[in-house]
């Protein structure tokens, strides 16, 4: 096993250990959200380290990678729910309307309902899949967002680190006898907002 493979294995194990410790004692929405925020913090450190030796094209206002279907775990949905509840009313309304448009898009590049004016409304609480996204060539990134057959230049170690944390979380959840199913952010949020404002209820649970 290479040093990098060992590092990824260690990240997955860290996620498993944290998840088992947090959710094994008591399963609540609050504990799940708290766990995910710890994993996001670890991911951010990994991202900073990966980008330290590269010049990334990612910047505020570039939302090319936000036109895709984002995979999320139930635990991440809980954390995103808390972020949604803290949005300004007009921003929550935007997400509601955007979700309605999202579910009507059948292609592989729908616009994330959390995107508004090319800015992520929940950037600090974006899922692991989003934290792993990066680009070293913005033009290629924009071409890919349009569905054109262009290979995006990216930092693979950044993506792999976030994937390892996600896999570790799913493994731990499965080990606890819970569902490790991965959902789609836009679809799940549309369902929550359509269920008597379940999204706000979710955010208020302990």
Structure characterization notes:
The protein has 206 residues and is mainly α. The protein is 59% helix and 4% strand. The chain has 9 helices and 4 strands; from the N terminus they run ααβααββαααβαα. It has helices spanning 3-25, 29-51, 74-85, 89-102, 128-132, 138-145, 156-175, 185-194, 198-204, and strands spanning 71-72, 115-116, 119-120, 183-184. The strands form 2 sheets. It has a two-stranded antiparallel sheet. A hairpin with a 2-residue loop joins strand 2 and strand 3 (119-120). Helix 1 runs parallel beside helix 7 (156-175), helix 3 (74-85) crosses helix 9 (198-204) and helix 4 packs across helix 8 (185-194). The model has no long low-confidence stretch (mean pLDDT 87).
Summed up:
The protein has helices at 3-25, 29-51, 74-85, 89-102, 128-132, 138-145, 156-175, 185-194, 198-204, and strands at 71-72, 115-116, 119-120, 183-184. The chain has 206 residues and is mainly alpha-helical.
Low-confidence segments, ≥5 residues, pLDDT <50?
none
Number of H- or I-type helical stretches: 9
The geometry reads as globular
First CA to last CA: what distance?
Answer: 42 Å
- Averaged pLDDT, please? 87
Largest sheet, described in full?
A: 2 strands, antiparallel
Q: For the largest beta sheet, what order do the strands appear in spatially?
A: 1-4
Sketch the topology as an H/E string, one letter per element.
HHEHHEEHHHEHH
Rg for CA atoms: 17 Å
Residue share in β-strands: under 5%
**Helix content range:** 55-70%
């Amino acid at each position: 096993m290479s040093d990098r493979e060992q590092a990824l294995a260690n990240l997955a194990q860290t996620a498993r250990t944290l998840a088992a410790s947090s959710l094994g004692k008591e399963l609540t929405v609050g504990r799940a959200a708290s766990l995910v925020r710890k994993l996001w913090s670890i991911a951010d450190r990994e991202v900073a380290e990966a980008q330290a030796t590269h010049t990334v094209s990612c910047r505020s206002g570039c939302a090319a990678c936000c036109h895709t279907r984002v995979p999320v775990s139930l635990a991440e949905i809980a954390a995103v729910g808390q972020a949604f509840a803290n949005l300004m009313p007009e921003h929550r309304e935007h997400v509601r309307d955007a979700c309605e448009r999202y579910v009507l898009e059948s292609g592989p590049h729908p616009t994330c309902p959390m995107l508004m004016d090319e800015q992520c409304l929940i950037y600090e609480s974006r899922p692991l899949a989003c934290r792993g996204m990066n680009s070293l060539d913005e033009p290629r990134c924009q071409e890919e967002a349009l569905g054109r057959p262009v290979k995006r230049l990216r930092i693979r170690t950044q993506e792999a680190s976030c994937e390892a944390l996600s896999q570790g979380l799913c493994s731990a959840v499965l080990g606890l006898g819970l569902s490790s199913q991965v959902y789609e952010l836009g679809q799940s949020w549309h369902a929550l907002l359509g269920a008597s404002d379940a999204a706000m209820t979710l955010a208020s649970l302990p």
